[in-house]
């Protein structure tokens, strides 16, 4: 079956999440991704549980559709192997702290001299420039620095981090779209280029509504629970047995909600709730009024009624409920595959559904150094030479 990135060769020396997620998607789209792990223990996620027969599920989740090598890049011979791989590569992805690749002799200037058409993408906490370039960067640090943590949580509560590693995934997506754009440019011009992606920049770039409020009126986003800053009702509400989400965020939906769902026509005449902006201004009072009605019935009762009248709504699921929902399963968002050590495994599916060149799960995450022999042979090494590399601690 055709895939959009067949023929693209990617060298991935990144680890943990942002870089590996980016290269995972490239592999899902058909690229030949060679994951080069540090010697001798590999990607840090290999030590993170849960474990299935000794293999990390965390590692397996974001390293599918890759071939794996384990090379000692601190050795001259190990570095030479990587340089040989780069000569025929299209893309190189790394997430060392700025300056480390220079020390290892695998920086952009060095690699682009060998392969001028190489697309080289660096992912770091704060980027390759600026006063904080050398600081270590983790997702939670970026959430605090970007202001996202300060605007997340209940109004009178503490700052709360987003439940997922949002800056890591934002950086992965930024790197992915940038690599694909650079690849299109290269197909047209033959030119490679350097891409500098940071966790902080990537997450900050997603705060478009908040930036509009700040640049437009000087408003500093505050913690607002599940409520929206300019629309109401557009948030989570308590019911008799839990919480539901309601998005009656324009005047027409608000009127339908009042007249047919909660049967409170008097709210349409209430001066606090006449317009969307007024409802947002008085959102705490509005929430209290709505919840006094909703707590009289279970969530399922209200969700059925809201659906009946075409008002966007939904449950607040726990993660296990999400994965069990028939819609998620109908969308093929849970896949099964067989891993040589883990056995039959489950993983997340592909969010984009291509009509002609679909993503595919063609290979499980590699065992540590699994493809050393195969790839070194492709580079011209003999079995005897490969055994010597192992003996001298150059490869796993």
Provide the CATH topology of the largest domain.
Rossmann fold
The helix-strand sequence is: EHEEEHEHEHHEHHEHHEEHHHHEHHEEHH
Instruction: State the low-pLDDT regions, or none.
Output: none
Number of strands: 13
Instruction: List the domain count as a whole number.
Output: 2
Number of helical elements: 17
The radius of gyration computed from the alpha-carbon positions, rounded to a whole number of angstroms, is 25 Å
Largest sheet, spatial ordering of strands: 5-2-1-6-7-8
For the terminal residues, how far apart are their CA atoms?
33 Å
The CATH homologous superfamily name of the largest domain equals Crotonobetainyl-coa:carnitine coa-transferase, domain 1
Measured by DSSP, the beta-strand proportion falls in 15-25%
Question: Class of the largest domain in CATH?
Answer: Alpha Beta
* General shape: elongated
Helix content: 25-40%
Question: How would you sum up this structure, described in words?
Answer:
- This protein is α/β, with parallel strands linked by helices and 396 residues long.
- The protein has 2 domains: 9-205 and 328-391, Rossmann fold (3-Layer(aba) Sandwich), CATH 3.40.50.10540; 234-316, formyl-coa transferase, domain 3, CATH 3.30.1540.10.
- The protein is 39% helix and 16% strand.
- It is built from 17 helices and 13 strands.
- It has helices at 18-28, 57-62, 76-87, 100-104, 108-114, 139-145, 166-189, 199-204, 208-217, 251-261, 276-281, 283-294, 299-308, 319-324, 326-330, 372-378, 383-391; strands at residues 9-12, 32-38, 51-52, 55-56, 66-71, 91-94, 119-124, 193-198, 234-238, 243-247, 313-315, 334-339, 343-348.
- The strands form 4 sheets. A 6-stranded parallel sheet has the order 5-2-1-6-7-8, with helices on both faces.
- Strand 3 (51-52) and strand 4 (55-56) form a beta hairpin.
- Helix 1 (18-28) crosses helix 7.
- The two termini are 33 Å apart.
- The mean pLDDT is 97.
- One of its GO terms (molecular function) is CoA-transferase activity.
- It comes from Thermolongibacillus altinsuensis.
- It holds the Pfam family CoA_transf_3.
- Keywords: Transferase.
- This is Crotonobetainyl-CoA:carnitine CoA-transferase CaiB-like acyl-CoA transferase.
